[in-house]
Amino acid sequence: MSLGDTSALDEWRRREAPSERIWHVVDAWVQRLADASWQAPSIPLQELSFSPESEVRSATVPDSDGVEVYYRYDFATDVVDLIWVGPPPNDSG
User: Fold this and answer.
1) By residue range, what is the domain housing residue 34?
2) Contact (CB, 8 A) for 52 and 62
3) 3-28: per-residue pLDDT in tens?
4) What's the structural domain count of the chain?
5) Which of 8, 22, 28, 77 is within CB 3.0–4.6 Å of 18 for a Cys-Cys bond?
């Protein structure tokens, strides 16, 4: 497996300006996706997945003060692309 598009990680860092501790926790968790797209505590989002081509998963990164990561794993290319990093996309504040 490999990481593809990780621009959502940089966008989150610019948008939210997390502390260095939180940045390192989230960045390390994302980097591990290259080895295991299913890593805990991620869960598949069936309604956003296109089986058997790809799977979308979400996770609240442990020890990150609630930062969520949404990503797509493409089965054919074995690539993980980030979709969103930050507070839940529907969080109103």
Assistant:
1) 2-86
2) no
3) 999 999 999 999 999 999 999 999 99
4) 1
5) 22
